[in-house]
Here is the input.
Amino acid sequence: MREEDIPFVQEIERQSQMTPWSALTYRREIRNRQACRYVVARAESQPPNGRSPHTEYPLLIRMLQRIGLILPTLHPATPIVGYGGIWLNETSGHITTIAVAPAHRRRGVGELILNALIDGAYELHAEYLSLEVRVSNLTAQRLYLKYGFRPVGQRANYYTDNQEDALVMWTDPINTTTYKDRLRELRQQLYERLRQQANQVTAESPRSGPIVG
Here is the structure.
């Protein structure tokens, strides 16, 4: 995520019925590279061939390069379709936010962003992952359960927009062989899903697809 992306990120927040962060908050988070990682997913209409210069999130980037979903450059008008953030809280990589624009949901974009944030957690040397999620958001909870998060408690009236409770979820240690093997398996499944979608989109419109920026 770049500072010029902030207004578009805030628009997705509003579409997702979330209380938008201020631009100042996002700028502070983006600039804090010692403890934070923020990413966006972009829908590019004409991805060129070639290698990406991205050096962050190498496992995910290499996987997506194989199916042409990573661009070497991004045009300023490339629309943002999702975003997420994570910051280091002692030993926990705490996922602060994930959201996808309504028109791009149920296509694996949220899962793609989650994987980028997991790579960010490894970069920050986190030992665990943690987050809060609305108790009513069963779709998100299913995704988090899939990636090893489990409920450990609730925070009453956590969300200021409607006073909804938050479900608190943590993973077991993410540096174990068990977790990394499971993550590798899940990424292969995601890769196959995105590959099939990319092939379908290519058949309908030869040059389109989501990317992570």
Notes: The chain has one domain: 3-212.
